[in-house]
Amino acid sequence: MRFRRTLLATLLLAKPLAAAAQPVSGLYVGAGLGADLPQSVRVTPVSPPGALPGHLRLDQDVGFDAIGSVGYALGNGFRFELQGDFRRNGIRQLARTPFPAATTGTVNTYGVMANALYDMDIGLPWLFPYLGAGIGYQWTRLNNLSVMQAGGPFHLSSSDTAGAFAWQVMAGLSWPIPNMPGLSLTTEYRFMDILGGEKFTGTDVLSSGAPDVPAELKLHNQFNHMFLLGVRYAFSVPAPPSAAPAAAPAPAPAPARSYLVFFDWDKATLTDRARAIIKEAADNSTRVQYTRIEVNGHTDTSGTAHYNQRLSVRRANVVAAELVRNGVPRNVIVIQGFGQTHLLVPTGPGVREPQNRRVEIILH
């Protein structure tokens, strides 16, 4: 009981896994070629009566098998297909005759089968096992069958075709080919049973100088073991997405149109950092459209308003001169001093606020 519960749980978990990814969906075609290993076939002579024992055995050589199919896969592991096949095997002997006999000829078999298959996703994108079964109809031709008694008059011959229903089971592996969407290699084993009852007519020579006598043989079940290598192509498997084009580099940010230059307390001299900022403003002025450049001086609230007004103008003049030294035309520069009237950081009177000791460079 515990085993059955475990098995049921395994199947329920495996079912959604199998549908997760499948090697084929939609319309597909396939082909395979391989070796056919037939088992010995029981043969019953129907006529003429008494010419041969009631049960003979037809032994065949290893032959070849060719298969073609067209099918449709549902995308959830299940697929259905129509198969056409052909097999050819040499006849080794008709055994259990009452006398030594030389046997020649071939057995050709061909037919159509309707198959249902199930592909399994085992978590490997390069390997998909599958199982299947099918039913159909097969025709068997005893092609130039000749059974001749060694040193005697008996000679049985037949070249006739008969058909019977058949069934088969199969197990295989498919190997999707990288970079070739829809194309897979397959390796497969098939077992086919052609149901008995096929009857074949021919002629029988029983004694020297006697006329030919109509003969009839009945074949019982034919069991065939087939080992195949093949290819399969699914038409609707999408191609892998192409690599996304490299993103275009982001455009360089537009040059700033305003710059701040800061001063030490009660100073109108430029620091190294201040000179670097002024040079950046001068360089960027060549990359933007402008009609004028404002240079506005400011101070903090320490000191008198009259003194701070003159200090803000001195600071603005120093910055303007540095701009000219860096290539900015003097006639586009407008200098203004605002003293302590436009504070960047609002403070009370007499406060030494570094952010307020500045010159603003504005490109218009």
Features:
364 residues, mainly beta, Porin, 60s Ribosomal Protein L30, Chain: A, 2 domains, twelve-stranded antiparallel beta sheet, four-stranded mixed beta sheet, 3 helices, 16 strands, rod-shaped
Gap from first CA to last CA: 88 Å
Number of domains: 2
User: What is the residue-mean pLDDT, rounded to a whole number?
Assistant: 86
H/I helix tally: 3
Rg over CA atoms, rounded to whole Å, is 48 Å
Q: Estimate the strand proportion.
A: over 45%
- Total count of strands: 16
| Class per helix and strand makeup | mainly beta
Helix share, percent = 10-25%
| CA-based shape | rod-shaped
CATH overall fold name of the largest domain? Porin
Q: What is the highest CATH level, the class of the largest domain?
A: Mainly Beta
Low-confidence stretches: 6-20
Order of helices and strands: HEEEEEEEEEEEEEHEHEE
CATH architectural category of the largest domain: Beta Barrel
The largest sheet, given as strand count, sense and whether it forms a barrel, is: 12 strands, antiparallel
Give a concise summary.
With 364 residues, this protein is mainly beta. The protein contains 3 helices and 16 strands. Strands 1, 2, 3, 4, 5, 6, 7, 8, 9, 10, 11 and 12 form a 12-stranded antiparallel sheet that branches. Strands 13-16-14-15 form a 4-stranded mixed sheet.
